[in-house]
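Form P-L/3: holo structure prediction, ligand adenosine-5'-triphosphate.
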Amino acid sequence: MLKVEDINVYYGAIHALQGVSLEVLEGEIVTLIGANGAGKSTLLKTLSGLLKPKTGDIKFLGKSIAGQSATSIVMQGLIHCPEGRRVFANMTVEENLELGAYLRKDHQEIKKDMEGVYERFPRLLERKKQQSGTLSGGEQQMLAIGRALMSRPKLLLLDEPSMGLAPLLVQDIFRTVEEINKQGTTVLLVEQNANQALKIAHRAYVLETGNIVLSGNAAELSQSEEIKAAYLGGH
Ligand code: ATP
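OUTPUT (holo model):
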């Protein structure tokens, strides 16, 4: 579904992604783990068209999308759910969800999807007229995911959905990601919480200072001594 081929991305003189290649197959949850500053957000921004690779290619559903506009990439079904809770704080829950569907014209289907999001996250239904900035951290994360679902993603890019959440909420969010995947959405999950991410993912890549240093089956990687020492707190 997604094939990243040897991309190099720079911020001025900073070489943030150094020949990164990876692949996500239809139906998978693939996780990308890495420490602060490894380049995870840079990779997602490049996939969604916010940054352009200097060299290399990105293929989505068999077509090159490197260098295309962010809007065109969204319209093809590659949806980026950004880090933290970048919801529109001054808008209500409902308005945020409507924005997720702003490129769509199928009003009946949009209504159905909105009901689906409220079914998945009943908390959002209870708060649909509430200003999003006043939601709790967990609720804002649900809203960010709900808004992404309103775009009908074929591939959902999730940037650190567990960041800043209490442990119980973290489990809820990972369970939700698993469910979304089981219902047919392919997921690329960027996480610092390697432990949980490796539990729900099929495959994983490890990014260090702009380079993929390890990749493979998630269950196997979670047993690797190297991963345990560096990302799983030695457990
Ligand atoms: P974190 O988990 O802390 O968000 P990350 O793995 O997502 O980290 P990136 O945000 O992708 O890392 O950053 C990768 C590198 O690129 C870092 O060295 C960072 O300082 C640098 N970088 C990121 N954004 C910019 C920018 N706008 N201008 C210059 N350098 C940047």
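COMMENT: The radius of gyration is 17 Å.
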